[in-house]
From TrEMBL, chain A:
<protein>
    <recommendedName>
        <fullName>Na(+)-translocating NADH-quinone reductase subunit D</fullName>
        <ecNumber>7.2.1.1</ecNumber>
    </recommendedName>
</protein>
<keyword id="KW-0520">NAD</keyword>
<comment type="function">
    <text>NQR complex catalyzes the reduction of ubiquinone-1 to ubiquinol by two successive reactions, coupled with the transport of Na(+) ions from the cytoplasm to the periplasm. NqrA to NqrE are probably involved in the second step, the conversion of ubisemiquinone to ubiquinol.</text>
</comment>
<keyword id="KW-0472">Membrane</keyword>
<keyword id="KW-1133">Transmembrane helix</keyword>
<feature type="transmembrane region" description="Helical">
    <location>
        <begin position="43"/>
        <end position="62"/>
    </location>
</feature>
<feature type="transmembrane region" description="Helical">
    <location>
        <begin position="185"/>
        <end position="203"/>
    </location>
</feature>
<keyword id="KW-0739">Sodium transport</keyword>
<keyword id="KW-0812">Transmembrane</keyword>
TrEMBL record, chain B:
<feature type="transmembrane region" description="Helical">
    <location>
        <begin position="275"/>
        <end position="293"/>
    </location>
</feature>
<feature type="transmembrane region" description="Helical">
    <location>
        <begin position="101"/>
        <end position="126"/>
    </location>
</feature>
<dbReference type="GO" id="GO:0016655">
    <property type="term" value="F:oxidoreductase activity, acting on NAD(P)H, quinone or similar compound as acceptor"/>
</dbReference>
<feature type="transmembrane region" description="Helical">
    <location>
        <begin position="242"/>
        <end position="268"/>
    </location>
</feature>
<dbReference type="GO" id="GO:0010181">
    <property type="term" value="F:FMN binding"/>
</dbReference>
<keyword id="KW-0812">Transmembrane</keyword>
<keyword id="KW-0813">Transport</keyword>
<keyword id="KW-0997">Cell inner membrane</keyword>
<feature type="transmembrane region" description="Helical">
    <location>
        <begin position="343"/>
        <end position="361"/>
    </location>
</feature>
Length: 215, 403
């Protein structure tokens, strides 16, 4: 006996792989580039979006029959803004340093295209339970990429993971034959996040040829 | 049956197999393939991709040899200077010596070998995976890379950067001829942003300078641009700067040899004289503007830009990497502008922006590679507007005729 029906499982599994919000739909790129220099920040961002998207999807789905379609964007914004403020306050109360690192990007969850996209595309037309699963799935797909990017950027850029030292000290000896580890400063800059996301897209598309668009 | 026929026979055996591109690459490197054009009439000329690449490499060889001697010379000169002995550069007296050559060879040749080995390995891997022929694009890149890095860059960093540059700078766009950015400059940009302490500052340009920091044998390895950026005086005179008895990246120091290489490339029509000329004009224009600002008294000697702004405009052309960048990098036929009018704009802006970055951004005392990469990105846009302007002009003419 499966926990979820096949259709429901698709709601969660699809965004993780072949319909990933970042690598396939190319949504939510800005936060993926901006806050992934540290793994911790990526995880917190992923969890925040998971919360906002799943709860928001349920709320919108419950209200879907009473929202006048002309003002639905505003209603969606109010819901998402309320949820983001909750997240922001919680972060400020319990993880102040981290909330300073994330700074404006917590607030910018409101404008994360994935969230409005799922509200529009899914929650407005489906029941609360399925919307909830869809929210979880898409946020997990977003979070997975964020964590992969954050992992590689923190590991190669600072030599740490979640703040703990993993890779060796910078090389002291110099010269051509110097062997040793040196942190890659480029990894800490946003362009490298774009390149890492690009490499993920590249790998994904070469594994699954159906994703390549005709042109 | 001669060797040539035998090789063609082996080629037939390899046909359709995974290793075919690898064999063909080595084969055609030495021999002309026995294949002819299949259909249609085409103009056949001898200047194929391989010959073009080899001509550029020929133009680079004098620069490389100079770089080898200079790496040794700068090391011993800096050691002398640290001991209080002032050296007067003389070509045959203390430059072309065996000491300099051996010291230079053990520092520079490993860079060349690593650059070629890693880069060609990446090319081979991609050719075998994708099943296309190995392209010669890396021949020039592999030679350029060791010439635009400091002598003391650790080899593994160079290897990492070469892999990045060839894969991200070229292969993801579809290989040789499809790249938006110049791969050699992509490699340098990667090194610069990834390992800034190994790519800039006053300790990386002379072999052994970084190692000796803090010891009684400490030597200085400041480049001219670095000194100017800190408003300090420079001990090198015009001859040193022009002929290249100065510290810097391996191959960029001798403006004279670069000029000769540039003339050779222009004569063989490999490099576009339009780009080279307009880039020089652009750099001189920006230099003149800065000199004018200084002459007008708008900035004072206390300004941190004073040192580089007051550098005479012609001197900007012979120090730093601008000459090397203009002659060997900006003229890259793939990533540069394609139209003749576009080439003037493209070159002019490269020169103009290079000097601007050089003066205004003390963190990047050399702006040439950033300027060329930037203009690489804009080259298609420039071409687009040139073509559109031409279309518009001809449409107008057509209207006049029919009206």
């Amino acid at each position: 006996m499966a926990l979820l029906s096949k259709k429901d499982r698709g709601l969660i599994m699809d965004p993780l792989a072949d319909n990933n919000p970042i690598t396939i739909q190319v949504l939510g790129i800005c936060s993926a580039l901006a806050i992934t220099a540290q793994l911790k920040a990526s995880i917190v961002m992923a969890v925040s979006v998971l919360f906002v998207l799943s709860v928001g999807n349920v709320v919108i789905s419950l209200m879907r029959n009473i929202i006048p379609s002309k003002i639905r964007i505003i209603v969606q914004l109010v819901v998402v803004a309320a949820l983001v403020i909750i997240v922001d306050q919680v972060l400020k109360a319990f993880a102040y340093e981290l909330s300073k690192t994330l700074s404006v990007f917590v607030g910018l969850i409101i404008t994360n295209c994935i969230i409005m996209g799922r509200f529009e595309a899914f929650a407005l037309g489906n029941g609360p339970y399925r919307s909830f699963l869809d929210g979880i799935g898409n946020a997990a797909g977003y979070g997975a990429i964020l964590i992969i990017v954050g992992f590689s950027r923190e590991l190669l850029g600072s030599g740490t993971l979640l703040g703990f030292k993993v890779l060796g000290d910078p090389i002291e000896k110099t010269g051509l034959y110097a062997i040793g580890y040196e942190n890659n400063g480029f990894m800490l800059l946003s362009p490298m996040a774009l390149i890492v996301v690009g490499i993920i897209i590249w790998v994904q598309r070469s594994r699954n040829k159906t994703l390549i668009e005709e042109n | 049956m001669g060797l040539k026929e035998k090789l063609h026979g082996i080629k037939e055996d390899f046909k359709g197999k995974k290793m075919a591109p690898a064999f063909n690459a080595l084969h055609t490197f030495l021999y002309t393939p026995n294949e002819t054009t299949h259909n249609g009439s085409h103009i056949r000329a001898v200047d194929d991709l391989k010959r073009t690449m080899n001509t550029v490499i020929m133009a680079l060889v004098p620069v490389l040899i100079w770089g080898i001697f200079n790496a040794g010379y700068q090391h011993y000169a800096a050691v002398d200077a640290a001991n209080g002995v002032i050296r007067e550069a003389s070509l045959f007296g203390n430059f072309f010596t065996w000491d300099n050559f051996t010291m230079g060879a053990i520092t520079v040749l490993p860079l060349v070998i690593v650059s070629y080995a890693v880069g060609l390995a990446v090319e081979f891997v991609f050719a075998v995976i994708k099943g296309h022929e190995v392209e010669e694009g890396y021949l020039v890149t592999g030679m350029l890379v060791p010439l635009i890095v400091p002598v003391d860059i650790p080899l593994w960093m160079l290897a990492v950067a070469v892999i990045f540059g060839v894969v991200i700078g070229k292969e993801v766009f579809g290989g040789t001829g499809m790249n938006i950015l110049n791969p050699a400059l992509t490699i340098r940009a990667f090194l610069f942003f990834a390992y800034p302490t190994w790519m800039s500052g006053d300790k990386v340009w002379v072999h052994g300078a970084k190692e000796a920091v803090g010891t009684p044998d400490a030597i200085s390895g400041e480049t001219i641009l670095g000194s100017y950026a800190q408003n300090s005086s420079v001990v090198y005179d015009f001859t040193d700067k022009f002929f290249g008895f100065i510290p810097g990246s391996v191959g960029e120091t001798s403006t004279f040899l670069i000029l000769l290489g540039g003339l050779f490339l222009m004569f063989t029509k490999i490099a576009s004289w339009r780009i080279i000329l307009s880039a020089i004009v652009g750099a001189a224009a920006m230099g003149l503007i800065f000199n004018g600002v200084v002459d007008a008294g708008w900035i004072t000697e206390s300004s941190k830009f004073y040192g580089l702004m007051s550098t005479p405009y012609w001197e900007h052309l012979i120090i730093g990497g601008i000459a090397f960048g203009i002659v060997y990098m900006a003229t890259d036929p793939v990533s540069g502008a394609q139209t003749n009018t576009g080439k003037y704009w493209y070159g002019f802006l490269i020169g103009f922006i290079s000097i601007m970055i050089r003066v205004f951004n003390p963190a990047y005392p050399e702006g040439v590679f950033l300027a060329i990469l930037l203009m690489n990105v804009f080259a298609p846009t420039i071409d687009h507007y040139v073509v559109q302007a031409n279309v518009k002009k001809r449409m107008k003419r057509l209207k006049l005729k029919t009206a």
